[in-house]
Amino acid sequence: MKQILALSLLTISSASFAVSTPVDLSTWSADTYDLTGGQSAGNWVLSNSNQTVTQTVNADPSVYLNNLNQTSYSMDGSWQSAGGDDDFIGFVFGYQNDHQYYVMDWKASGQNAGTEYGTALEGFRILKVDASSRASLVLKDFWESGTSNSTVLASNLSTSNGWVANKSYDFHLDFLTTPGDISILVKDGSTTLWDVTINDLTYSSGQFGFYNFSQANVQYSGFEQTGGVIVPPNAVPIPAAAFMFAPALLGFMGLRRKAKKLAA
Question: By CB atoms within 10 Å of each CB, which of 42, 123, 126, 165 scores lowest?
């Protein structure tokens, strides 16, 4: 029984990564919305031995996902846009499905794009997308946000906070490495542009991915992950699963001991 306990604890912790690991993007997958009044599908192109991916066209909101349901990790990487437009770059995390996840997005300049889109301001946001279905999402949920499907959890908006073409920016994400906390740091070299921590447990695990909305020729590269606990699909998220599992295991061990005594 001691062997069973040791094996079970090993299973819970075996998906944790102790060191920073370069990310191979070849196993990732793309998905683009097809929204009423919107644009074409995204086009994600790998390069640099699968360490870099570039979204090449103006598209509806598009993501490039790592296909790992995980929690308690850090992610580092960089973005660079060749310009030609002034719209959204960023990443998604805690991605449950195509209508429930977090988004960190960054717009180069403010813009009123009409009734279907609404007005988007220049700067940074963290959004929580929480809709009943993919079909219920509309352009305004992503562009203007602050809708019934898209809640702004944090923002740093001003006419001097937009990204600049042909400049590489670095980001760091801590996703629940401290219980309940999501922290994001964006830097231009040694200069901190945004450093924010929010507390939200709506999505306690999920996929990580790159995000792009209406911005062609954006390069996402140099990604490394530190830590991470894989959560099986539809499982109770760790650490809750670990705490629920332990009493059941101990109870089973007690029953086995009692049965052996009775048999003797």
Answer: 165
